[in-house]
Every structure is written in C-alpha cells, then in structure tokens.
Specification:
The complex is a heterodimer. By secondary structure, chain A is an all-alpha fold. Chain A contains eleven helices and no strands. Chain A has helices at 3-20, 22-25, 57-93, 95-110, 113-123, 130-144, 147-161, 164-171, 176-212, 224-229, 245-268. Chain B is built from 17 helices and 21 strands. The chains are: A mainly alpha, B alpha+beta.
Chain lengths: 269, 548
C-alpha cells in the first residue's frame, strides 16, 4: 500500500470516527432549531454556523456523514451481491441464460433512473419516519444499482468458464452448483471487491442527487444530499465559504475512496 | 369616486382627477425625460398564445397586458376601475347588462379604426363556446346566449343571460380585437405591439404608433421605443442577468434573493407589502380517501384543526422562512385586498398551551411526550409539499418542530408536483398538504370553485353531492348569495361571513401572505411597484430609460 493510499485510509477512518463521535462533538443535535440565529456565521457555539432554519451546521455535517458513510456501503454491498448472482451466474451458465440475463441488464442500464426513482418514491407510503426513509432510499439505490456491475461480472465469469482450471475441474467430474460456488465465485472475488468499492462513492453521489431533488432522506434527518442542497443559491457561496464544508468533505471522502479503490483494482488485476 | 354604487355608473370626469394625480406622481421624473429606450425583462415561460382571448398562463397574460387595449382598466396601485377605451359605463341593477360609451378617433396598431362593432365582435368571439376562452368562462353565469347591441359607433351594450357579479371588473382582462383588420389578434389597441418572436428565446414589443394616450404635455405614449422580453425559466440566471445590468426588472422576487440584492444595491429592491398570494395547510377530510378512519376523525374535528392552527408559529414562518418579507395570514383574503378583506378578523396567535388544552378537551392526551387520541392511536401524520420549493419545505420543517412541542409527530414528504396533484385530485391518498394559492383576482367570484362544496377544487373535501357539514352548507349559500347580488356592500357582507366561517372552522389553515417583492434597475424611471400583477410594469407606457 502506497503512502497516498495509507493517507486516504487515515482520512476515511478520521471522518468515520468523527461522525460516530457526533453525539459528543455536537451535543446540540441535528434537529434543534435556533430560530433567532438563522444563517449565522461560524462562532464558538456553532463552529460551521447555522443553516436557514437555525440548525447547527457542524452537527448536521457529522450526523449526515454518519448516515451517508454507513448506508452507502450497505447499498453497495447489496448491489454487488445482486450483480454477482445475476452477472456471475449468467456468465457461468452461458447460452440462453446469459442472453436473457444480459438483455435484462441492458434494459436496466437503458432505463431513465432519475424518473424511475422519482416514481418509486412517489409510490412509497407517505407516513414513513425519517429513519425508515434513510433505509428505503439506500435500499432503492442498492436494488436498482446492480446492472453495470453485473455486466462486468458476467464478462469475468464468461472468461473463467473457458479457463483451464475450470475445464480441469469439469474433467474431474465437478459440475453445476458445486463448480460455481467452489471454483468460479472465489475467482470473481477481486472483481467483486473492486465493484463494491467503486459503488460506494457512486451511491453517495446518487443519494446527494436525490437529496437535491428533495427525494432522499426525510427532514429533519441530515444527509450529504440535504446538506449539498444548501449550495443551490450559488450567488451566496463566495460570501459564505463555510457552506462549502459538506461539499469539500464529500470530495475528500470520494477521492479517498477512489485512491483506496485503485489499490483494490490493482489487486484484482 | 362611486366604485361601488348600485348601478356602478362611472364617468371619465369622475375619475379624471384621480387619474391625473396618480399619473403625475408616478411619472413626474419621466415627464422630464426624452422618449425612447428599451425596457428588458424576463418571462419565466414561453407564452402559450398571442390570442388575448385564449390567455391561460402568466407569460401570455403579460403580452396581453402590454399589447391589449381594454375598455376598463383596474388601476394596479389604487385597485380602482378606470376608463380606458370606454369613456363611461353603466351596469344595470340586475347585474345582467353593461353599457359602454366609447372613445372616438382611436385606431388599432395597423391603422384600422376602432368602433363599437369591434367590442361586439370581441364579445361574440369571447363567449363562443367553441373557443373555450378562459377569460370568457369568467363571464358565464347562466345558460343562454350573450346579446350584444351596437347602438352607435361609440355606444354598445352587452346583456348576459344571468347576473354576473363584479361584471365591470372582469373587463380588465378583455383585450378588444378588430373585426375588420386582416391581422386579427395582432392588430392591437394597447401601448405596444408584437414585432418579433423567436420561439424559446425572446419576444420584442415595439411602440404602437396609433396608441391613443398622451401625457400632460401632449406627447404620445408610450415613452419607450420597445420592450425586449427574454424567455428565461431559471430564477438564478434571471437574478445574475439583473446584477449584470442585462435586464431591468424582476417581478415576484424570492425573499432570499431580495435580501442579497438589498445588501449590495438597496436602491433597486422594492417591498410593496403583503400580496394576495397565500400559503396554506389543509387536512384531507374526503370520505373516499384511503386513509385510516381514526385519522379521518381527527381531520374532521374542528377542535383538532383549530389546535393545529394555534400551535403553528406564523411569526416564525414569516421571519425565518421569508426573512420578514411575509405577514402572518388572517384568513382567505389578504389585507392587501383593500375592499374584500374582513377587518373584523383577528390574527391567529401562537399558543401551544391553548392548543394542547383544546386537544385534551377533544379527548386527546399526552403519553410519554406523544399525543394520543381517545382510542390510544399516536397522532402521527404526513405533510406533503412539492419538491424543489425551498420556502414550503422550510415551512413544513418549522411546522414539524412546532407540532412536536404538543406531541404530534409529523413526517415531511416532498413529492414532484404531478404526483402531488394526482394524490390531491385523483386518489385522495394524502393526510395533509402544504401549498400556496396565487391570487390574481380581487373579487371573491374567482374563488367560487374553492369555497363551493360541490366544486372539484374544494380541496379538503371536494365534489360533495350535498354539503356534509352545516358550515359548508352556509358557505355555499353565502357564496351563491354574493355571486348573485349586484350591491357590492351586500356582497361584501356575505363574503365577510364566509371569511369568518373559514377562521372558525380552519378547513384551510392559512399560514402567511407573501410580500410582493421586486427589483427595478435605477436606469428605469417612473416605476412604482405594486402588489398586483404585473407588479413592476403595470404602468409600462409611462416608464422611461435614463439617458434615452
């Protein structure tokens, strides 16, 4: 592991650690409204100032980081598992199975996801608590985000299918599920690992995009998406640079993930 | 000025003094300036039509206002009716007939002379059922045809099959068409005419060379050579362009942008006070809605709705969300509506303790910080509003926090607008909605579709076959009474009672009235922004550009 990758890991650990210490670092909480101090600049009581409703921005950044950093990997795990099952099996089985699975994957890739997510959110029950909305948002992202990873895994499984060691295993009388679970899937691990790491920043950004559309995590719970929504009034960004903190944090975390991923990709290669 | 006399007789002489005073005051500076120049501002959408009779959107309405000549104009500043192409008019006692005496020697923008025949032709076109004119619909009060009678070149009378309340005021929206011009709707009587149109990009209006008005010095109006309208839906871009000096006006400015502009250029921003627009919250009381029965019982309880209203801090909504550029709402009519506002209404005070008492008297109780009804159901409901509307999203979060103080858990849900409208009007699958009402009409007749219980737009419980509550039955009776009365004072008496019922029953929990905020470049002289649309250019013919 290079120095850069070690630094990236340290940054991720630091950010995750700070977000877990939110109760101690920002005891005011993310929902309390200081209505007489809205849009306040940084001070000793509010380190990053307050938002438009007077809520402590530092607390919201910490809690939002916790939510996004916990649930994005969970969504990434779900989507990678689905991709492994669908793409891996299609590549291994080949023939009509592969064509059918890839047709479904291509259909998923061609769908207008933004509109589908908006529709899916509109179809969900209205009376869901903010906590449930967090889980539902990332579950949706996970369930719907497997298709591109499935294509990669299908190609990898296809090449494994015709590899020498799989042929030898077949010649030795190993077939079907046993061959898939014992010999194919373990050899897909590096690709799966890389796909998992790649998906995390994608889901963080997807949630941020949904948040900007007002479709992500429900109020008053913060997420990076809802925090980035504050930047919509671009005119004010230059005047209030502390508003940029969530964006800077997102860039740092996503960059750190990418640096860590590059190591995983090397391992996979 | 006898604006509300029984027969509503109005002569040019009776208002000439007022007109002169207003115009002199507004245009004192401009009178000293030379003519010419171009006014530039943005339309937020593409106009759907240039036909003034088919106008159904703001952008088309703006074109109609600037190009159309009307018989009677509602002065946006005084809210009084003033003669334009009509020298005088008279409404019959039964409210079914209006007679006009017209100005003579007036020409359309293509040189075609204007006469009573053009008025008759316009009314025939307007009331043609095949045209589906939204403006024409406002005149439809009963079954039967409209009769127009041309008495002479300058006299015409129009008879409707049934009384039309506020008949004369409706003519503010009727731009007169030429019967004989080959250019049809492009031949206009207003101060400007459409000279160029690039779809999706811009519209250029040029001075109408035949416009009839002159100033005190006898100079022809309008002062401006042209108006350049850019079609720009993005509010951020509109603001940036204003700051760069590329446009001269912004109507309906957001409070956030208003403060930002005010910080750097306080001389360009204008707060005209509370507008007619309101923001309100309502609960779903429709019997056919798929929400649980116990929730329907809460929402149908007057005590519950009143308690919610008392527990909302409207001052904070105005102060925090609108930065002070909004006023806590009294009821369905904004205080800005000078005649129709009921002065007996008291502002709703923020009182969570009284709210809690009201709820406890209605069988609710607090358990571990959560409000429960008499059957032990926790009081939890969702408020939906349209995604992307920052002010409404913020108001919903403030209300969520306010109601938490009396043990009510609110889930705030933002939905895209079509989904919200579908739930509101088709499936009725919602609990509470926070939305706004844009009011362009001062007269309560424009709100008949909201207050009548049989109406589809009676949002809390639409399309009732018979009124389900006694107070809704009374509102129906009062709204019909005011619509059929011709005496303005009797109409007001009935509509005042409607406002009082709404305040007592809180079917709509009115939250705030937004202030009318606008920005006008310092290079524009004569602008006097008002609350009524079009806020900044209502007196466009009197505006001048500095240095021209």
């Amino acid at each position: 592991m290079s120095l850069g990758q070690r630094l990236a890991c340290a940054v991720l650990v630091l950010v995750l650690g700070a977000s877990f210490a939110a109760n101690w670092l920002a005891p005011a909480g993310y929902a309390r409204q200081y209505r007489d101090a809205t849009d306040a600049p940084p001070s000793h009581t509010h380190w990053l100032g307050t938002d438009e409703l007077g809520r402590d921005r530092f607390a919201r950044v910490l809690y939002g980081t916790r939510i996004s950093l916990l649930l994005a990997p969970a969504a990434a795990l779900l989507s990678t598992l689905l991709a492994a099952l669908i793409g891996g099996f299609a590549g291994y089985a080949g023939g009509a199975w592969k064509r059918a699975a890839m047709a479904i994957t291509d259909l998923f890739l061609s769908l207008p996801w933004l509109f589908l997510l908006i529709t899916a959110r509109a179809l969900l029950p209205l009376n869901v608590s903010p906590v449930v909305s967090v889980v539902v948002t990332f579950l949706l992202l996970g369930v719907l985000g497997w298709s591109s990873a499935a294509r990669v895994l299908c190609a990898s499984a296809s090449s494994l299918r015709s590899s020498d060691f799989v042929r030898q295993a077949r010649a030795a009388g190993i077939h079907g599920r046993r061959l898939f679970w014992m010999h194919v899937l373990p050899n897909l691990k590096p690709v799966l690992f890389a796909q998992f790491w790649i998906s995390i920043p994608v889901f963080i950004l997807s949630e941020a995009n949904l948040g900007i559309l007002g479709l992500g995590v429900a109020e008053p719970m913060p997420s990076w998406g809802s925090l980035l929504k504050e930047l919509e009034g671009l005119v004010s960004v230059g005047e209030e640079p502390w508003r940029l903190v969530p964006l800077i944090l997102l860039v740092i975390v996503v960059t750190s993930f990418q640096i860590v991923i590059s190591n995983q990709e090397e391992v996979a290669a | 000025m006898k604006r509300h006399s029984k027969a509503s007789t109005y002569t040019a002489r009776s208002c000439s003094k007022a007109l002169a005073v207003i115009l002199c005051a507004v245009c004192f500076c401009s009178a000293a300036l030379a003519q010419g120049g171009e006014l530039r501002f943005c339309l937020r959408s593409e106009p759907k039509t240039f036909d003034p009779l088919k106008v159904d959107d703001d952008a088309s309405g703006a074109i109609r206002y600037l190009t159309g000549g009307v018989l009677i104009r509602e002065n946006r500043q005084t809210q009084q009716l003033e003669p334009e192409l009509a020298l005088s008019w008279k409404v019959s006692k039964d409210g079914r007939q209006i007679s006009f005496r017209l100005r003579s020697g007036i020409f359309f923008s293509d040189g075609t002379p204007f006469s009573a025949e053009d008025v008759a032709y316009t009314i025939q076109q307007l009331m043609d059922p095949a045209l589906h004119s939204p403006t024409g619909d406002t005149f439809r009060s009963g079954i039967g045809s409209v009769e127009t009678k041309v008495i002479s070149a300058t006299q015409v009378s129009i008879r409707f099959p049934a009384p039309v309340a506020g008949l004369d005021r409706l003519f503010d929206q009727v731009a007169i068409l030429s019967e004989h011009s080959l250019k049809k709707e492009m031949a206009v009587l207003g101060p400007f005419m459409v000279a160029d149109y690039k779809a999706g990009s811009s519209i250029i209006l040029r001075r109408n060379p035949y416009y009839w008005k002159t100033d005190a010095q006898g100079r022809k109006l309008p002062y401006l050579d042209s108006i350049h309208l850019d079609i720009q839906p993005n509010r951020d871009v509109e603001l940036l362009r204003f700051k760069r000096g590329e446009i001269d006006l912004i109507n309906s400015l957001d409070s956030e942008y208003f403060d930002k502009l005010s910080a750097t250029s306080p001389q360009v921003v204008h707060d005209a006070g509370p507008s007619l627009d309101s923001e309100q919250l309502w609960f779903n009381q429709a019997a056919k809605s798929p929400i649980p029965g116990y929730k329907k019982n809460w929402f149908r309880s007057t005590a519950f709705r009143r308690a919610i209203s008392e527990a909302i801090n409207r001052d904070d909504l105005s102060r925090v969300v609108y930065h002070g550029h909004a006023q806590p709402a009294f009821g369905p009519v904004s205080p800005a509506n000078k005649f129709w506002f009921d002065n007996n209404l008291k502002p709703q005070t923020y009182d969570p303790e009284t709210a809690l008492n009201t709820l406890q008297n209605d069988g609710f109780r607090i358990e571990n910080g959560t409000l429960k009804d008499k059957d032990g159901n926790s009081v939890v409901f969702s408020i939906i509003t349209n995604a992307g509307n920052k002010a409404r999203e913020r108001m919903a979060v403030l209300i969520q926090d306010d109601l938490q103080k009396i043990g009510i858990h609110v889930n705030v849900v933002t939905l895209d607008f079509p989904s919200l409208i579908e739930r509101m009007t088709q499936t009725f699958d919602y609990e509470a909605i926070l939305l706004g009402l844009t009011n362009v009409d001062l007269d309560p007749n424009g709100e008949m579709n909201v207050w009548l219980s049989s109406s589809e737009n009676h949002q809390w419980n639409p399309s009732q076959k018979v009124p389900e509550t006694t107070w809704e039955a009374e509102m129906d009776r009062l709204m019909r009474a005011q619509a059929s009365a011709s005496d303005p004072n009797k109409r007001k008496e009935a509509f005042d009672r409607v406002q009082e019922i709404v305040a007592e029953q809180q079917p709509f929990i009115f939250l705030i009235n937004k202030n009318a905020l606008s920005a006008v470049s310092t290079s524009i002289h004569g602008a006097a922004p008002v609350i009524l649309s079009p806020q900044t250019y209502w007196n466009a013919e009197w505006l001048t550009v500095a240095g021209k």
